[in-house]
Amino acid sequence: MAATAAAKVALRLFHPRGSLAAVAWSPASSFSLGRVSPGCCCGLTAAARKYSSEAKALEEELRVRYLDDEHKGIVVLGINRAHAKNALNKNLVKTISKVMDALKTDKKVRTVIFRSEVPGVFCAGADLKERAKMHASEVSSFVSKARSTINEMANLPVPTIAAIDGIALGGGLELALACDIRVAASSAKMGLVETKLAIIPGAGMDFFFIIM
């Protein structure tokens, strides 16, 4: 029942956004490993104010919202990299992993919804511009981290929902496949384009097609 109610909430998150009452926002950098910051604070903590510009960028790349009232217990994670069509870079993957680590031990969380903050795109996959600048060892490390992060998502102890609005390609679709439920807008376009080149998706989430 909780997942069904959350799926209805996910439908309301498609662009143009529906209004949801009593939404609290907590920047990703306010998470401490292992638990969610007390009170789901709506502003930056004193420690977060001292973060470097890199940390501030992380806050903006993944927005964490806690719904209240009748939707209390639902956490909405919004990817926010408009300039890169929400492509997964090292910083974003690191942030998602950190948030997963916090959410999996928080007993107050009932459901997690993954969505995009950018109209017309869910996630375009890996950030190929960043990858082009990586050495081979860095690419291997990134793929390994992305795979483990998506597996963390798949293994969260609460229902997870992907609200797919726009394109979901490569790693973006793998992120959606790792969720228990996928809710797609009429604008959604999905694909693992790398398979056309006989390349196995980096996170190995093509496996989920056989259990969907």
TrEMBL record:
One of its GO terms (cellular component) is mitochondrion. It comes from the Eukaryota. PROSITE patterns: ENOYL_COA_HYDRATASE (PS00166). GO terms for biological process: fatty acid beta-oxidation. InterPro entries: ClpP/crotonase-like_dom_sf, Enoyl-CoA_hyd/isom_CS, Enoyl-CoA_hydra/iso. Signal peptide: none annotated. GO terms for molecular function: enoyl-CoA hydratase activity. Pfam families: ECH_1 (PF00378). Belongs to the enoyl-CoA hydratase/isomerase family. This is Uncharacterized protein. It comes from Micrurus corallinus.
